[in-house]
Amino acid sequence: LPLAKLTAKPKAAAGSPGYGPYLGTVPSFAPTKEPGVVLQAIRPNSPAALAGLQAGDRIVEFDREAVTALEDFSMLLYASEPGQRVEIVVVRNQQRIRVQAVLGQRR
Questions:
Q1: Residue 11's pLDDT is what?
Q2: Considering Cα of 48, then 101, then 75, then 80, what sign does the dihedral take?
Q3: In whole numbers, what is the pLDDT of the chain averaged over residues?
Q4: Which of 26, 29, 81, 101 counts the highest number of beta carbons within 10 A?
Q5: What spatial distance separates the first Cα and last Cα of the chain, rounded to whole Å?
């Protein structure tokens, strides 16, 4: 991953809204044989839902960077900004699907 994408961001102050971008995905923590992050669920009305992501999708790219594990996805997401448009590539039913999402603000 490019070093510029991995820079640390400050934490939100106690009592303030959450800091950072929000996509609205719930990853599965079950081990998989294929690279990527399988989505267990999608939050209703979230940026992920609006982009058309579905439970069972496997994220393999986020903002033009390969996603091989949950750690990759987490670092890439948190290196992004609320309001940023990102391209996400998922595998669904053995087909690669490319979607665009506009990240929300974590609350």
A1: 47
A2: negative
A3: 88
A4: 101
A5: 27
